[in-house]
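lol forgot to send this yesterday, sorry. struct tokens for the thing we talked abt
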């Protein structure tokens, strides 16, 4: 690679690093149950849709991804989050359950399912999710703090 190629590569890498630094904490929590590796789908475009509030577009993309990878807890969590934000609470509930059946310690799904419980008048169930999060990641993890802050004291 010549010096121009190295410079372009560096600039592209820097741009990606800066772009990733702007991902919202909500999006980070949604996918934090497992790390993204080379064998997992690239969800960055979906994260951008969700961060922009384009839930219907995200749902369509995620449903397509699920056809190829029906046991991916991250995809199910993103789908449930988008469904919840767009008002489809029943589908969101089902997909949070599916995500947690695949990965019972998925921090994002535990947090956001807890928020769904609060939305649907089930604070005791939200407290159960908070207790599960404490066991999974302690009281200092972002997901625990986010859910805890939303539960009325």
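and heres what i got for the seq, position by position
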């Amino acid at each position: 690679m010549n010096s121009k190629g190295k410079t372009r590569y560096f600039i592209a890498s820097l741009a990606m690093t800066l772009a990733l630094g702007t991902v919202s904490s909500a999006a980070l929590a949604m996918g934090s149950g497992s790390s993204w590796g080379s064998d997992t789908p690239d969800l960055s475009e979906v994260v951008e849709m969700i961060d922009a509030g384009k839930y219907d577009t995200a749902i369509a993309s995620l449903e397509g991804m699920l056809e190829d990878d029906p046991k991916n807890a991250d995809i199910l969590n993103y789908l449930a989050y988008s469904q919840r934000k767009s008002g489809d609470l029943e589908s969101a509930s089902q997909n949070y359950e599916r995500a947690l059946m695949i990965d019972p310690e998925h921090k994002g799904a535990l947090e956001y399912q807890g928020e769904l419980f609060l939305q649907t008048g089930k604070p005791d169930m939200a407290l159960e999710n908070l207790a599960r999060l404490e066991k999974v990641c302690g009281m200092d993890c972002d997901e625990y703090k986010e859910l805890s802050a939303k539960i009325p004291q």
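Confidence is low (pLDDT under 50) at residues 2-25, 32-38. anyway ping me if u want another try
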